[in-house]
From TrEMBL:
InterPro entries: CBS_dom (IPR000644), CBS_dom_sf (IPR046342). It comes from the Bacteria. The lineage of its organism: Bacteria, Pseudomonadati, Pseudomonadota, Alphaproteobacteria, Rhodobacterales. The chain crosses the membrane at residues 20-39. The keyword Membrane applies. SUPFAM superfamilies: CBS-domain pair. This is CBS domain-containing protein. Pfam families: CBS. It comes from Tropicibacter oceani. Keywords: CBS domain, Membrane, Plasmid, Transmembrane, Transmembrane helix. PROSITE patterns: CBS (PS51371).
Amino acid sequence: MPLNAMRLYLVTGNGWPEIAGLAGMLAAAAAASFGLMRLRRGRTVGARMTREVITVTPDALLDTLVGQIMLPNHLTFVPVVEEGVLLGHVDSALLAGIDRENWTGTRVEDVYAVLDPALCVPETMPVTQLLERMRQSGRRRFMVTHKDRLCGVISLSDLPGVARSGSGRGKT
């Protein structure tokens, strides 16, 4: 029996269930640490982001947005773009505040959240800096921009190994 295991056995009396639990915790911590190490190797947001982003134009009706874009593609967040210029976004939280009977006559331009620089990051941002921003803001998703153009979207799910470690959980 290794010395550390023996110490644990002497402290707890039984030891083996505690050793198995400790081994599991150490394995999870090592996996999370390995995921973070991979991200730290010069990785940028641009290398991890989703480039093929489904967008909506401001003149679309909300029932079209939900029925033809969001539901079929399992989306909770859609950037609003007009002639290549990023204007803002629509998300499920925003839609929840609008009565469904009004969706057929309401256009995206009437309700979308105007572009907020706090929700945008550049492609060149290091992933570690993005993780810190996620931690501080509680947000899990950011639009990747260059000037007024949408380059992609990055979310916690684009960062393998990090999502399992529990960092960045919170708002979408």
